[in-house]
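Q: Please design a sequence for this.
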C-alpha cells in the first residue's frame, strides 16, 4: 500500500472528504478518520456543532465514538487518528483517553492547538498515555479549506472562530 507517508496522505484525503461535509451545515470544515490496525478506516467524523447544537460534536470526538462502536471497545490502542486540523484541548484529551498511539494532522492550529503548537497535552509526562504526533500532512490543502471558510464567513459579517 506504499510508504507510511503515502498511507497518511491517503487517509488525510479521506479526512478532507469528511471536512467538506461540514460545509453543508455551516460547521467549521474539520474532518477526521480513525484507521484500524489493518489499515482500514473504522470511524469517521466531521464537525457538527452547528448541525446538532452539541458543543462536543467535534470531528475527532465523533470519529473516536464511531471507531469504538465499530470495534466494540473504547481502547483504540492499535489505531491512528487522522484529522485535518490540530486537535483542541478537548479532542487531545479524548485522544489520550482512547489510548490512540498515533495522531496524524494536517494544519496546525496556532490559536487553540493542544498537540504541539499552543499546548502539549498529548505528550504530557504527567498523563498515563502519550501520543506520537505527525504534523503537516497535506497541510496546504487542509489550511486552504479552513482559510476559505473563515474568509467567506468574515466577509458575511460572521465572527471568527471561538
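A: Design:
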Amino acid at each position: 500500500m506504499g510508504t507510511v507517508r503515502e498511507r497518511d496522505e491517503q487517509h488525510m484525503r479521506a479526512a478532507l472528504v469528511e471536512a467538506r461535509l461540514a460545509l453543508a451545515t455551516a460547521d467549521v470544515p474539520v474532518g477526521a478518520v480513525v484507521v484500524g490496525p489493518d489499515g482500514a478506516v473504522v470511524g469517521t467524523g466531521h464537525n457538527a456543532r452547528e448541525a446538532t447544537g452539541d458543543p462536543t460534536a467535534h470531528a475527532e470526538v465523533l470519529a473516536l465514538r464511531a471507531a469504538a462502536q465499530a470495534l466494540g471497545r473504547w481502547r483504540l490502542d492499535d489505531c491512528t487518528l487522522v484529522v485535518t486540523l490540530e486537535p483542541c484541548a478537548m479532542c487531545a484529551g479524548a485522544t489520550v483517553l482512547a489510548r490512540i498511539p498515533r495522531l496524524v494532522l494536517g494544519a496546525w492550529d496556532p490559536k487553540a492547538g493542544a498537540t504541539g503548537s499552543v499546548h502539549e497535552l498529548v505528550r504530557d509526562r504527567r498523563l498515563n498515555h502519550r501520543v506520537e504526533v505527525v504534523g503537516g500532512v497535506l497541510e496546504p490543502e487542509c489550511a486552504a479549506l479552513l482559510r476559505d471558510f473563515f474568509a467567506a464567513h468574515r466577509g458575511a459579517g460572521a465572527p471568527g472562530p471561538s
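Q: Thanks. Anything notable?
A: Residues 158-162 have pLDDT under 50 and may be disordered. The longest strand covers residues 41-46.
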